[in-house]
Structures are given as C-alpha cells and as structure tokens.
C-alpha cells in the first residue's frame, strides 16, 4: 500500500457537534456557548437526560419555540428565543454565575480563537485595534465549569493551527481547557502538553503533529 | 401606612441627580425597563454612569438614553451586539467611557454592594487583561482577583407583579439582573404589569422582598421584543 498524506475528511459542523455530544454523560448539567456549541444540543444521544444551563438565568432550557410562539422574555445567552422543559427553573444572574464559579456545572462547551497545549484559552478578543471589546460570560464559564471543552476548527482559514504553544490573543483563562474537539482530532490539554483522544480516519499521527506544530502524546 | 405605588413614572423618577449611577436591569431586551428609561430621558438627569449587561439595542430604551447624550460612562459585559450602533458610534468617537466587566463579576459586584460586602476575591479573569492591576491572592492553591462592589444611586427594574410593600415577582428570564440591582441601590424603581393586594402574592414565591424596593409603577403589557441576537453557526 502506498502512503498518502491527505486521505482524510474533516468532520462537518454537525459531525463535530455529534462527536462532542457523544461525550456528554447522562445527568450532566451543561452550558453550551454562543455560536457553534449551540449545535451540540441537536445531537445529544437519545436516552441521555442532560440539563442545559443558560447564563441569563435558566436551567432546563429547551429547544427553539415553533414559529409564532417566540417569547422574548425567554431567550438564551445569544438572545435567541428558547423554551423551558418541565422541571426547568429561572433564577437571577448572581445565582446563575454562582453555578459556574461554585463548580456546579459539569461541562461547558466554548468556541475559541486559540487554545494552548496546556489549556490556556483565548476566545473573547483578537486584540484588534479599534474593535469594540465584549466579554460576556466567557471568563466565568471558562474557569468555573468542572470541565471546559472547546469546539473549533483546528486550523484558521490561512491554515495556521489554533492550538498553539502560547496564546498570542488576549487570554480568557489560564489552564482551564480540558479538551479540544476539532474538525480533525479530539485532543486533551494537560500540564505536560497535548494528548490524543481520537482523530479522523486516514489522518496519520505524524501529519496531525505537523499541522499543529506541537508534539502530541498518543 | 406604607404605600410604594407611584401614580406615574414621572413621580417615581423625580429628583434623580446629575452624575447618578443608574443600574438598569435586563439582558438583551429581556427585562429592559424601557418605560423607566424613557422616564429618565424625560426627567433630564445627565452625566450618568449606567450599569447594564449590554449597551442598548436599536434606537429605543438604553440606546435612546445614550443617543440623548446623557451617559458619561457605561459599565457592562457585552456592549457589542448586532444592532448596538448607537453605542458603537459614541464609543468610537470617544464620547462614552466603557468599563468592561466579565458578566459574573458584574452580577457579583452588584450583589456584594447589596449585601454590604466590602470587596471579594474571585477567580474570574485571573491572568487576563480584565484583571488589570488589581490585587491577587492564592487561596487554597487557587488564584483570585480582588473585586469591588458596584453600588447604584438608582436601580431601574422590570418586574411582573407587585404590591404596596414593594414585593416583586418577575417573568421568565426577564428576571436576570433585577433582584441583585434592586438590592444594590439607594433607590429602586420597578415597573410591574399587575399590582395586587397585600397578601395576594404567595410569600414562598416572592423573589424581591419589598425592603429592596422604593417605588413601583404599573405599566401596560406589550409584546416582548427581539433585538441584537446573533444567529447560531
């Protein structure tokens, strides 16, 4: 058999969301960040009961309402209309963030600009001159949940790795990311560096290391 | 007799001084007390410091207060939204000071003010730009940043039901910052959609006890509004 370098396919956004959902255990309380992580809710395996937390004061958040049933007093962190499942609860903002910082959330899934091999996260600012800064709940979530997972494409549009030795964008939190779920591989961030959990079929370990530019323990 | 029911929004807003710090409830458009913000515009106080999670949507409510040039400084966690063009323009032209605070710190700093806590150590933002030069401390092996309370001269809150003692309930996720802002201000003004007799509210479900409330005003119920949201990827 001849070795080839590119006989692999990236996970689609839905495949990636399904990959993340597969690791969310029955009974988990989970916060899904704005944007791509929101998709994970659509892929939770049947038979697993998961409670979704929304930073603006909701536990037991349900899916989007049917057209015409929107109630803008019931929105998610991205300000989109949602619903409440039976058993769900409302609470004020200080309680909502106490749930994060107090270590009561099992998992949060966030997007990222960069993650370091040891789990530093940069996801709130590109530090661009003149950009309007906005942080929202990202810093509280990143350091508060029992496990912080990042979901992102491994490479930028220019082909640079978003997993880096040291973040160059402004930090959201230090050493807070436990796992990175990407379109090419799932990696664990540890104090000793990256560790492989899985990768797409056909992508050789050496090739993945070359793309990331860092050693990855098998 | 205690009667916190104000006859009108103008009555409830009377005497708010220039330079006041105004805590305004709401997240996105849920729980934004638009009627009270309009009342504040009418009342005329200027050089205000406004505390809200966001920095206004479209041209109404908080955006209208900003547009009227009445705000000197805004303390918030997420000013940038799909339709925050009034804020964007003022910020870019240097006419508005911004203090950006992680959302949980914003809520907890407000709560601390209401609870009489002088300052607290919080892990959020440690090692980031937003921790600034503030004192840090390692407690039980974990690093924390010293955070100070945010006190309000006035809080403007949108609630659902109230009585003449000022007891309040809220509606769904429109509760958000209302309860902590009500605690943290010298004077708290709340709108409600319904005023009921004392004893009619179930004491087990009162969210903000009247001790934290100065005035309540009844407003008409209008349809809840969308605004400033991002589409999911």
UniProtKB/TrEMBL annotation, chain A:
Keyword annotations: Transferase
InterPro entries with a match to the protein in the record: 3-oxoacid_CoA-transf_B, CoA_trans_fam_I, CoA_transf_AS, NagB/RpiA_transferase-like
Annotated GO MF terms: 3-oxoadipate CoA-transferase activity
Pfam families: CoA_trans (PF01144)
Domain of life of the native organism: Bacteria
Membrane-spanning parts: none
SUPFAM superfamilies from the UniProt entry: NagB/RpiA/CoA transferase-like
EC number in record: 2.8.3.6
Protein family (similarity comment): Belongs to the 3-oxoacid CoA-transferase subunit B family.
Protein's recorded name: 3-oxoadipate CoA-transferase beta subunit
Native organism: Variovorax soli
Automatic annotation (TrEMBL), chain B:
EC numbers on record: 2.8.3.6
Keywords, comma-separated and alphabetical: Transferase
Gene Ontology terms for molecular function: 3-oxoadipate CoA-transferase activity
Enzyme class of the recorded protein, top EC level: transferase
Pfam families xref list: CoA_trans
Family label: Belongs to the 3-oxoacid CoA-transferase subunit A family.
NCBIfam families, per the entry: pcaI_scoA_fam
Protein's name in the database: 3-oxoadipate CoA-transferase alpha subunit
Lineage: Bacteria, Pseudomonadati, Pseudomonadota, Betaproteobacteria, Burkholderiales
